[in-house]
Amino acid sequence: MIERKSDGEFVVVSCGMLGYGFPEASIDAAVAAGVDLIAADAGSSDPGAYYLGSGKPFVSEVMTRRDLRLLIKAGAEAGAPLVIGSAGGAGGDGQVDFLLRITREVLAELGLKRSIAVLRTELDKDVVREAIAGQRVQTFETFAPLSPDDVDEAVRIVAQVGCESYYPALRGKPDILIAGRAWDVANVAALPLLLGYPRGLALHMGKILECGSLAARPVAGSDLILGRLREDHFIVEPTDPAKSCTIASVSAHTFYEKTDPVMLAGPGGTVDLRGVAFDQIDPRRVRVTGSAFHAADTYTVKLEGARLDGHRHICIGGVRDPVFIRQLDDIQARVVERISEFQAGSVDPSAYSINFHRYGKDGVMGSWEPVRVPAHEVGLLIDVVAQTPELAEIVCAGARSVLLHVGFDGRKATAGNVAFPFSPADMPGGPVYSFNIYHLMEVDEPETMGRLEIAA
Amino acid sequence: MKVLADIAEVIRSKNAGPFVVTFDILFSNEADFTAVRTAGLVTRQAVAELYGVSENEMLGFDYYPFARAIKFSIRRPVGSGAPGDSDVYGAQQHAPLLDLPALP
Fold first, then answer.
1. pLDDT tens across A46-56, in order?
2. B10–chain A Cβ distance below 8 A for any pair
3. Distance (Å, whole) CA A379 – CA A51
């Protein structure tokens, strides 16, 4: 059985995104502080569904290897386990394999022997189909129920597991745990929870530490952050002596990337921050007390599934003609119409979509843009997504040439409507994925979520 | 008249999952936070109007004294990174808030 240290303190250093880099001095400072756990988040749903769908790693192998080498070395020096969640960006099996391979290579390079546990959280589609049939899937932020068709269409489905799913692996005391898709909080909080620390405090500390030094000031590049957990409070401090944690920086981070800053829902329940107090105990450190936890009636994990929407081809051009810019909405509609006319009989219009991103008009905010007066020049990004790469290329080329020569009211410039910076003007953008599954699945025994492997 | 950019320390937007963008307005001191709250210009309705969204698309709008902050969220018209999306991280949707009247 794992036991607490006699002084009652549990020290965690956290890396917000494996492969984003951190100063070497920061991990040295953490080792000097006597860390009990090195936690690293390696993924997010933030960059979109591409990484889940394609299986490609979100962070480059070179940078992943750099950070991993420093964390593995530090773990060996401090005698602390290294826990990494959401391997490879989205936490699919292939991305877990990617991280496992690099881990083994780094260990070989360093001449270290460290035990590795692997927790896979990619799901067999039948598991999800059975959950739908058993009415154990809840609608979440897509605001639409999950259908068996969604499951069929998904390229890959992962479960974002919570702390409990880490327990079986952690009980085996691995030196390194590599997990598939997981709640970012679990990397920090699972081990102290297993040691019996209070749930509200451990999870709240995990939430603050999971983005690394974003909870410290100045925010300058990515860095590590340190948490000291005790029975009745935790302390947040930066590893970099030049940085400080302030009440403002820590409480502001409690807000980050979630809709409700006071009730933080996660696997198994809700962290309740209504009674939280922040104290500045010295210029660099903040003490947090009062974080509570309410267990949910049913334990749920989030499912994430990616669907292939098609293949992208893009064209970038600029428009300076004021008459053209004034009529952009109309012209754009006419271009789309013309293309379907030209290609009638040879290309099915339902096999592709054309989006115009109009920088200088509403390219960044789309329908949310309150400023309705366009700039004096507009950047046009023609974005075609079609069933095949070839079709995307054909439609994109068609849209580009129609746009270049299309007539409009009051036109003086008859030679061409668009300035293209490149030749060729069009380029492929690869496959396009979206989250077609983003739902909650009820789980009876969270400890059995995921497939645990002990890697030699 | 003062706008939010004159008073707030942080005005930002960011994804809260792939289907929601959340907005934070943080103040550096209690007095500014309270003044804006009391003035009653920065409201759920004002924000919904600014972004041209319906009540239905707005998810929460509240003043949080413990963090001297205002927070609200909006459902995305298109999921992060899906065809037609314009801001994968949702990090550039804050700009109209800068000019929102906050104090008379």
1. 889 999 999 99
2. yes
3. 28
